[in-house]
């Protein structure tokens, strides 16, 4: 059975607490888990940013503010694990080693962040190394990797496939601009480069897209690996 790590942005799973995608994602993940081993890393989204903003305004240091962000990722993760009932391991993993261990149960494993000064993108890439994932899927709020931010630059071009080196060059270029918001962070990109992990970036605002990509229908997104080959469907 193949193994996937799915990085699910908080803004995708919980765009707002009231109108969230948790039960839709639970349904899709249950279906995917019939075909492969699944690990899910959940982000903090807007709620994490709000807590971090308040923490900073209270004079808290950056690492302590990150700890609050991590707590929000784990709350989001706990909501998804709860919605998955018996299909998920009942505890939210607090480290990648723990996630690997929980995975021995054969259930879907859900986790959030792990330590300050990281993002859940980086966590998901490291987890993909630990569990020897066949593919790392990043479900985000854009439909792939662009040459520039498509939300602000109309000339931005979307890539169907990239090598890890090409991805790193794009991120490095983007970082020269203040307020840059590359779709994948540099740590995650470096990890997938060193381990030649296949990465797929796709639009996760509709959970069906993720299901279609993994289970064999056409999808729109970007593939990153050394030979630019689409690793999907599994
Ligand atoms: P993320 O930045 O990973 O959230 O974590 P996200 O949901 O993916 O963001 P969107 O939805 O794509 O926009 C939120 C915050 O939690 C802290 C950081 O402060 C991060 O900005 N965090 C997260 C850590 O410090 N360590 C971690 O391992 C994970």
Q: Would you kindly provide a written description of the structure presented here, covering whatever features stand out?
A:
This protein has helices at 10-13, 22-32, 45-57, 62-83, 96-103, 120-130, 164-174, 186-195, 207-215, and strands at residues 3-8, 37-42, 109-111, 135-140, 145-146, 158-159, 161-162, 199-203, 221-224. The termini are close together. It is α/β, with parallel strands linked by helices and 234 residues long. The mean pLDDT is 94. The chain has one domain: Acetylglutamate kinase-like (Carbamate kinase), CATH 3.40.1160.10. The chain is globular. The longest helix is centred in the N-terminal third of the chain and has 22 residues, at 62-83. The strands form two sheets. A seven-stranded mixed beta sheet has the order 3-2-1-4-8-9-7. The protein is built from nine helices and nine strands. The protein binds uridine 5'-triphosphate. Uridine 5'-triphosphate (UTP) binds at residues 9-11, 43-45, 48, 52, 66, 69-70, 73, 113-120, 123.
């Amino acid at each position: 059975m193949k193994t996937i790590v799915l990085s699910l942005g908080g803004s995708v799973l919980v765009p707002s607490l009231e109108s969230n995608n948790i039960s839709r994602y639970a349904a899709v993940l249950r279906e995917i888990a019939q075909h492969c081993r699944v690990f899910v890393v959940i982000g903090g989204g807007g709620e994490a940013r709000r807590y971090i903003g308040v923490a900073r305004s209270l004079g808290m240091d950056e690492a302590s503010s990150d700890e609050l962000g991590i707590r929000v990722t784990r709350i989001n993760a706990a909501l998804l694990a709860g919605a998955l009932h018996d299909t998920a391991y009942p505890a939210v993993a607090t480290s990648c080693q723990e996630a690997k261990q929980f995975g021995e149960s054969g259930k879907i494993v859900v986790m959030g962040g792990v330590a300050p000064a990281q993002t859940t993108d980086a966590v998901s890439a490291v987890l993909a190394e630990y569990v020897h994932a066949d593919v790392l899927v990043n479900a985000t709020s854009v439909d792939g990797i662009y040459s520039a931010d498509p939300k602000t630059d109309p000339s931005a071009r979307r890539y169907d496939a990239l090598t890890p080196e090409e991805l790193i060059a794009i991120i490095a270029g983007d970082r020269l601009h203040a307020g840059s918001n590359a779709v994948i962070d540099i740590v995650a990109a470096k990890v997938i480069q060193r381990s030649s992990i296949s990465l797929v970036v796709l639009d996760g605002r509709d959970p069906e897209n993720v299901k279609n990509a993994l289970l064999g229908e056409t999808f729109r997104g970007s593939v990153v690996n050394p030979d630019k080959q689409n690793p999907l469907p599994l």
